[in-house]
Amino acid sequence: MKESDIVALDFIIDKIIETKRRINYYPLVKEGLIPSLDDKNTALEFKRLLNIIKYVNCAKVIDSDFSDTVDINENTNDFKNNGGFKTYFQEELKRIEKKEEREKLETALAKSNIEANTLNIENASKNKWFTWINIAIGVLNLILLAIQILTD
What we know:
This protein is mainly alpha-helical. It has five helices and two strands; from the N terminus they run αααββαα. The chain has helices at 6-19, 26-30, 39-56, 76-81, 84-151, and strands at residues 60-62, 69-71. The protein has a two-stranded antiparallel ribbon with strand order 1-2. The mean pLDDT is 88.
């Protein structure tokens, strides 16, 4: 969906609510919202708009070999009352921006975790040496304690 589609899409929703009947691409051509190139290309552009409407489920799309049409469904009036495609487009932009921001944060967190794991691996070999040194000192302390106890 492009921002430039909003006017045509909202026009379709307004028209089916206003007329209370299904429409095809002719009203959009008449209003200059779809270029009147030839029937095939005009119908293809209308079908592209109908695919958006079908995806959003804000109207009933009727596919036909002769001429695709669109009609009111149970969601049409609520969709229109909630701002139509202008609001839908703005909400989608916000959702995409949040998703991109979340992905950036997840990438930064993953990078941080990799760096921390690398440091842990580097420190692990040092920690092994310190562990063995501590064990040796502990054993030496036990020997010295035993000697001290036996000599007293």
